[in-house]
Amino acid sequence: MVDRRVEVVGRLKLLEESAAPLISFLQNPALVQELRTDKQYNLQMLHDRYQIGTEQIEALYEYAKFQFECGNYSGASDFLYQYRTLCTNSDHSFSALWGKLAAEVLMQNWDVAIEELTRLKDIIDSKNFASPLNQLQQRTWLMHWSLFIFFNHENGRNGIIDLFFSERYLNAIQTNAHHLLRYLATATVVNKRRRNMLKELIKVIQQEHYTYSDPITEFLECLYVNYDFEGAQEKLRECEEVIVNDFFLGKQAQENGFVTVPLRDEFLENARLFIFETYCRIHQCIDIGMLSEKLNMNYDDAERWIVNLIRTARLDAKIDTKMGTVVMGTQHPNVYEQIIDKTKQLGVRSYTLASNVAATAVAVDVPAIR
């Protein structure tokens, strides 16, 4: 380790000397004001006035990379930003942006990190790669790095849904990163404002069922595809364990002196709401005792939860405490009534279709008879 330290310090000094002229220029605010948005002008100006050329600019890149490897993420981020304003090497500029994203993530600067993530996404989507496989790999890496940001940024739950559901990135998940469905599913479940994406999510989960599944995707499949409430109840218990032990989902927080897992609590709350809503669509009179079992709650907690849900969600339902049941309003048809309503018009449509086919057949046959 002593020999290694000597080697590292020697390398650091060598890179400092190589990049020193440019670093001195960049640390002078008055000189930095001479730079313009035109990179060619900047290169010519630096060369003519300060004898700073491409060699010193590339030395700054190596110096910033070495600072990152030494754990100086703040310095690396600053140097990489300055390097990108000067360099004309597109590959190094692309790598520098990756490095800056990593530095911001490691410093937990989530607002800046999400800006760099967006910038990197735009470049990946517009850059001409040597092969489509390289572009697929870049998108896959981007989605994995984005997990650090989206599960820490205040607007991350919307961000992950927007990114992962976009066509190109959803294709990347289905081709190269099926395990990311866990995080997309969790974000969709806990985000009440994006319930409209649930149908699309179920479709993707069904398509990838034979390639990837975990308790979270299986819970949604049990509930919305198979209508298996017992299976959903069992999977919900497994979901709790999965979330607590997942690096991104199981983030802990201190609340009133107690350690909690906020995402787990939100997921369970919304999952129970999904079970309740789906069950209510099929049944008009529901036994609270049976429902409490399906929600993994005791009877009293389930009754209080249903009362609060009816009050806050303004559901047309009432609780019959004597019978221990929840009675849903009659103006909301159950699934069976919906099927009857939707099939009422089948007879008329079939008659119209048959008439049109017959009319077309007659029109074709008449000239032949003549």
TrEMBL record:
It comes from Sphagnum troendelagicum. PROSITE patterns: PCI. Transmembrane segments: none annotated. Its main location: cytoplasm. Component of the eukaryotic translation initiation factor 3 (eIF-3) complex. This is Eukaryotic translation initiation factor 3 subunit E. Belongs to the eIF-3 subunit E family. InterPro entries: eIF3e, eIF3e_N, PCI_dom, WH_DNA-bd_sf. SUPFAM superfamilies: Winged helix' DNA-binding domain. HAMAP family: eIF3e. It is found in: Cytoplasm. Component of the eukaryotic translation initiation factor 3 (eIF-3) complex, which is involved in protein synthesis of a specialized repertoire of mRNAs and, together with other initiation factors, stimulates binding of mRNA and methionyl-tRNAi to the 40S ribosome. The eIF-3 complex specifically targets and initiates translation of a subset of mRNAs involved in cell proliferation.
